[in-house]
What does this fold into?
Amino acid sequence: MKSLKEYIAEAEAKKVAIGHFNISNLEGVWAAYGAAKKLNLPVIIGVSEGERDFVGVKQIAAIIKSIREEDEYPIFLNADHTYSFERVKEVVDAGFDAVIFDGAQLSFEENIKIAKQCVEYAKSKNPEMLVECELGYIGTSSKLLDALPEGVATSGDALTHPDMAKQFVEATGIDLLAPAVGNVHGMMKVGNDPRLDIPRIKQIREAAGVPLVLHGGSGTVDQDFVDGIHNGIAIVHINTELRVAFRKGLELALQEHPDEIAPYKYLKEAMKSLDICRGPIKAL
Ligand SMILES: [Zn+2]
It folds into this structure.
């Protein structure tokens, strides 16, 4: 099977992106995997620090590995936003395929220093493991937003600068870069999220020399996905929309089957709400 790095290169060449879907439980894994299989596409399962603490760090690594090996299917595991070297080390040791060290709220120098340490450790244990870093602040929570989080970069000088991206990649040797290009973690309760700065995406991709990852994909308008992918985005993260869908699906399943006590029955119903092949989740 090809490596994740090869699948990403292939996606870029085809001008498509690989979907990265966060999960908090096994239902999420099966839903994302099921949808990917229906479309015959590679897929990345993401777990934040909180999500992986809930599922189990070594346990989620074992689950994804077992699916990949049993079905010979390109399903990969990424440790989403990881805020310290210690926690990066933990997922490298657990056998994850990729990790994001998120030093976006540190100084540029400090971010580089720890990122470099993460790259060196990851590559020494598994040369194929991918390390991603974040430059520019886009908020932290995958939740429904009443207003944009304070300090989030949505335009102009606050967005990731191409020169800094280049400098960062050269200094650290990271494989993937998550820029701030108008994207925001979470999703606006009312209306659309801010628009992406497509020319900036193109400039950053060219300057950085590595594929870009779009975080905060939930709430982004469709045309921005297409234009972003054509200009340097190789992976798209979706979390908030799935959280909303699962919650709504679970509420509905419990309402419809008030006497059902077998979790595998009502959770199966809830899981159907996560099927991304069914169309826009907002329509639920
Ligand atoms: Zn993110």
